[in-house]
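Q: A reviewer asked whether we had any structural model of the full assembly, not just the individual parts. We don't, so I'm hoping you can provide one. Inputs are below.
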Amino acid sequence: MASTMSALDSAGRRGRAGGSRARRDAWVFLALALPNLALIAFFTYRPLLVNMYYSTLDWTLGAMDATVVGFGNYVEFFTSPDAPAVLGATGIFTVATVGGSMVLGLLVAVSLNQKVPGRTLARSAVFAPYVLSGVGVGMVWLFIFDPVYGALSWVLRSVGMASPQWINDPKLSLVMVIIVYVWKNLGYCAVVYLAGLQSLPQDVMEAAALDGAGPLRRFFLVSFPLLSPTTFFLLITSLLSSLQAFDIIKIMTPTGNGTGTLIFEAYLQAFGAYNRAGYSAAISVVLFVLLLIMTGLQLRFVERKVHYA
Amino acid sequence: MKRAFNRRNFLSVAGLGLGAAALAACGGPSTTGAGAGAAGAAITDWSKVKPAAKITFMSSHPGKSANVEAQLIKEFEAANPGITVDLVTGGANYEEVAQKFQTSQAGNNVPDVVVASDVWWFRYAIADTVVANDELLATVGDKTDGFNATLYGDYNYAQKHWAVPYARSTPLFYYNKDHFKAAGLPDRAPKTWEEFAQWAPKIQAANAKKAGYQHAYQYPALAGYAGWTLQNVLWGQGGGWSKEWTLTANSEASVQAIQWVQDTIVKDGWAGVSSNDAVSDMTAGAVSSTVSSTGDLVGTLKAAKAANMNIGVGFLPGGAVSASPVCPTGGAGLVIAAKTSPERQLASAKFVSFMTNAQSTAKFSAATGYMPVRTDADMTSVLATTPQIQVALDQLKVTRSQDYGRVFLPGADQEMADAAAKIMNEKADVKATLTALAEKLEGIYTKTVKPKLKS
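A: Here is a predicted structure for the entire assembly that you could use as a starting point for your response.
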């Protein structure tokens, strides 16, 4: 009996001590997490929720009054003749820039992974555009593409060709911003791929070579599958970055002539000529949902194909 | 009783925090009709108001006017010792200033006086973000009858004036005198577009071998103000964007006018469309003529002189149906913000009156090429240094206020530029494109303007 009581006391003390420690841990956790949580809530989730609220209003930017229209802005967007153009431009821009940056970045990375003279300089040069300001890049390329006094038009004229109307023709202006965006961002993909290539297990590569696999087979059957975590990482980051691309498009085509992607259309509707803040908010929510879905799909399906070394 | 802080507790706390943040954030515009617009309608006894000691002037410095604006502010402060003016750059163009002014409405620190272009002041007026200036100007002793009647009348809405003319302009016909001479043409602007259509092939042929030469005429960049620069061609052919609130962009005359524009590019091949700045294209020697704002006049003449080029200016050409008036007014005025105190509004009225008085407008005009907005402005010294301004002054007498369809419909300029791009760059069917444009403009009017019109 005495031994039983003693055991219960001991368990009770341990329980009280454990409870006290858990409470202390909880307070420490809250003290550390809450400031960050509050900042994220205030500066990230609050605007997101407010934007969702605004998307239910017919509100002219700057006006003090607005009318609640429920899902009216969403209905208007999806039924307007502009929706296919906006979604189409978003799709083309995203696929072309993500695909272009990744494919060219991989090619550049493979080239820079060879032991050639001056490769350190070449690596720096390839990465340099990524750290440049998008505004500056846009302005310089705008000068290059100008069909009257642009550098490209001068080159074309010198070989007897007329310059395409890069800025005026909506189809070409989309091509123009894609070229510039890919040029600016392929350095990022190249550097990340280069890091991936340099971390590949050399024994596997050597084994493949001993088995008689040529450089192309080694690349496609060994290196590329082993690079899949890198490819997956780049796919997610590039996709999110492309869907949010703004600076180059704004500088090169300020009124969105053929380059009205979702994010730029949201800007134009609120801060451009229309001042339709509620409608713009609805387009932003569409973009947000699209980003959520794409990230979810990638995590759900693409990651299954990734081979982690 | 022990209660561990588990994942569920954490999510609950986080959710509560988020919810609180969301609720706190749901401020924004009023959905009950009790916004600041109603408050702004309060009647003020201006005789009992003392001007504020400091106000803010937000400008895009149209026509590279930052220096002359700063100089005029100094003169204003000297003449009004109790008031200082803080000059704020609101952006590089009217649109950027508008963006900043409108977003500033969300806070409590709006600029007091703002540069507002012909397409912006009306939006501010119907959104109640600016005040009518009639009473204010009368209080500060400004007899507004000194303003050019057309320019001041442009701002008349609901029997009140919502802005005063400031950096006002009209388009001018700019031409390269040497290119015209090479083609054996007289040293003047064409009287009509039909006359120019006869001249253009000769100009093109005479200058084609010059390095980088492209066209006899360059349409201004569409992303700029296509609706403004094409207004002249439309009126000349008897068309227009609208007749008051009735859209006429797809009328027979309008279709005919814009078809003529497309033909000059696609069929005749003597005209092109600028990608960026038509005046720069001309001073680069790539084109022989263009249409641009009087606000570009002084800068263009300087650039031409540096390039050893002779530039002439003339009236906008007329059309087959109407020779005059076919020149639209344009440019910007000054508005006074509603969301400030009466004291600041009164100081703003003094400032606005000073910036646009006869002496100031003459100085501003001399520095930029914009129109003097008062009829009693002494332009003698201005004309002595830049005699070409006389052309703009003469043309001002035969100007016409722009169609409602362009200046009063939010986004109309963008829609017009998009339609023009389809027609002029993508060779789209003119009638179908203009019909789609008219429908879109009608939608904008019905949805965003008509319900907000003041009686």
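A: Points you may want to mention in the reply: The two ends of chain A are 60 Å apart (CA to CA). Residues 61 and 271 of chain A are 8 Å apart (CA to CA).
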